[in-house]
Amino acid sequence: MIKKLQRRSSLIILASVVVVFVTAVVVVAIQSKSSVKAPSTQNGEIVVKGTAVCLPHKNTDGPQTMECALGIKDEKGRHYALSDSDDTYKNVSNLPMGESVEVKGVFEKGDSTTYDTIGTLKVTSVTRG
Questions:
Q1: d(CA 80, CA 78)
Q2: How confident is the model at residue 26 (pLDDT cuts 50, 70, 90)?
Q3: 8 Å CB contact between 50 and 74
Q4: Average pLDDT for residues 96-124, to the nearest whole number?
Q5: Cα atoms in the Cβ-side hemisphere of radius 13 Å centred on 21
Q6: Per CATH, which fold does 39-128 belong to?
């Protein structure tokens, strides 16, 4: 009788551990799926942390022009084109190229024919670091 109770208790404990484990796996899976839809790829106001760069061209065949289209490369390697919300370009005129920045603005998802970007960020502020 005691062995049956011990066996039953062991099975209940094992079943409880399995339920907790499966619940944890489901929660982690749901969180990782929701993080794929990060605000940095949705239209609207966002903050992007990354490095100020010249945007890479899509087509690298043949000669390349030397212009620098301002952009930011985020921590996931995605490039954002930058436009300034200020007519005098006060937000992007002193962009510290090659340095870490935090850029705030309104994102519009879109495909560029020239540059490898996921869209354009109309900049309202730039903060170093």
A1: 7
A2: low
A3: yes
A4: 94
A5: 6
A6: OB fold (Dihydrolipoamide Acetyltransferase, E2P) (2.40.50)
